[in-house]
Inverse folding.
Protein backbone atom coordinates (compact mmCIF):
# COMPACT_ATOMS: atom_id res chain seq x y z
CA UNK A 1 0.00 0.00 0.00
CA UNK A 2 1.31 3.45 -0.89
CA UNK A 3 0.78 4.86 2.63
CA UNK A 4 3.43 2.47 3.95
CA UNK A 5 6.16 4.01 1.78
CA UNK A 6 8.78 6.33 3.22
CA UNK A 7 8.74 9.10 0.66
CA UNK A 8 9.12 12.90 1.01
CA UNK A 9 6.68 13.64 -1.82
CA UNK A 10 4.06 11.39 -0.22
CA UNK A 11 4.53 13.35 2.98
CA UNK A 12 3.99 16.64 1.13
CA UNK A 13 0.81 15.33 -0.46
CA UNK A 14 -0.53 14.00 2.83
CA UNK A 15 0.56 17.16 4.64
CA UNK A 16 -1.43 19.36 2.27
CA UNK A 17 -4.50 17.10 2.10
CA UNK A 18 -4.91 16.45 5.84
CA UNK A 19 -5.73 20.08 6.76
CA UNK A 20 -8.28 20.23 3.96
CA UNK A 21 -9.91 17.09 5.32
CA UNK A 22 -9.75 18.66 8.78
CA UNK A 23 -11.67 21.69 7.52
CA UNK A 24 -14.30 19.47 5.89
CA UNK A 25 -14.58 17.40 9.09
CA UNK A 26 -14.98 20.59 11.15
CA UNK A 27 -17.77 21.67 8.80
CA UNK A 28 -19.64 18.38 9.05
CA UNK A 29 -19.33 18.17 12.85
CA UNK A 30 -20.14 21.77 13.77
CA UNK A 31 -21.77 23.62 10.87
CA UNK A 32 -23.58 21.13 8.66
CA UNK A 33 -26.80 23.19 8.84
CA UNK A 34 -25.14 25.78 6.57
CA UNK A 35 -23.95 25.21 3.03
CA UNK A 36 -20.23 24.69 2.63
CA UNK A 37 -20.06 27.97 0.71
CA UNK A 38 -21.65 29.85 3.64
CA UNK A 39 -19.24 28.14 6.00
CA UNK A 40 -16.26 29.32 3.94
CA UNK A 41 -17.66 32.87 3.73
CA UNK A 42 -18.03 33.05 7.51
CA UNK A 43 -14.55 31.63 7.94
CA UNK A 44 -13.13 34.40 5.75
CA UNK A 45 -15.10 37.19 7.47
CA UNK A 46 -14.46 36.27 11.12
CA UNK A 47 -10.78 36.14 12.06
CA UNK A 48 -11.41 34.26 15.32
CA UNK A 49 -13.46 31.62 13.51
CA UNK A 50 -10.73 31.35 10.87
CA UNK A 51 -8.23 30.70 13.66
CA UNK A 52 -10.41 27.97 15.17
CA UNK A 53 -10.86 26.18 11.86
CA UNK A 54 -7.16 26.38 11.03
CA UNK A 55 -6.23 25.02 14.45
CA UNK A 56 -8.46 22.00 13.97
CA UNK A 57 -7.12 21.41 10.49
CA UNK A 58 -3.52 21.55 11.71
CA UNK A 59 -4.34 18.94 14.36
CA UNK A 60 -4.95 16.56 11.47
CA UNK A 61 -1.40 17.21 10.25
CA UNK A 62 -0.04 16.75 13.77
CA UNK A 63 -1.74 13.38 14.05
CA UNK A 64 -0.35 12.26 10.70
CA UNK A 65 3.12 13.49 11.61
CA UNK A 66 3.02 11.57 14.88
CA UNK A 67 1.94 8.36 13.15
CA UNK A 68 4.74 8.56 10.59
CA UNK A 69 7.40 9.47 13.17
CA UNK A 70 6.36 6.61 15.45
CA UNK A 71 6.49 4.12 12.59
CA UNK A 72 9.99 5.38 11.65
CA UNK A 73 9.04 6.64 8.21
CA UNK A 74 11.10 9.78 8.60
CA UNK A 75 11.10 11.00 4.99
CA UNK A 76 7.30 10.98 4.87
CA UNK A 77 7.18 12.69 8.26
CA UNK A 78 9.62 15.31 6.97
CA UNK A 79 7.31 15.99 4.00
CA UNK A 80 4.33 16.35 6.34
CA UNK A 81 6.31 18.76 8.51
CA UNK A 82 7.32 20.92 5.53
CA UNK A 83 3.73 21.00 4.26
CA UNK A 84 2.55 21.98 7.74
CA UNK A 85 5.04 24.85 7.84
CA UNK A 86 3.98 26.10 4.41
CA UNK A 87 0.30 25.80 5.36
CA UNK A 88 0.86 27.61 8.65
CA UNK A 89 2.78 30.47 7.03
CA UNK A 90 0.09 30.82 4.36
CA UNK A 91 -2.63 30.94 7.02
CA UNK A 92 -0.75 33.55 9.05
CA UNK A 93 -0.36 35.70 5.95
CA UNK A 94 -4.06 35.34 5.14
CA UNK A 95 -5.05 36.21 8.68
CA UNK A 96 -2.74 39.14 9.41
CA UNK A 97 -1.81 40.64 6.05
CA UNK A 98 -4.92 40.32 3.90
Amino acid sequence: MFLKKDNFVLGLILGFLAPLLGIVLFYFVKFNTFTFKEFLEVMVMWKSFFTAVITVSLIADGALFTIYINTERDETARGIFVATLVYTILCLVLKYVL
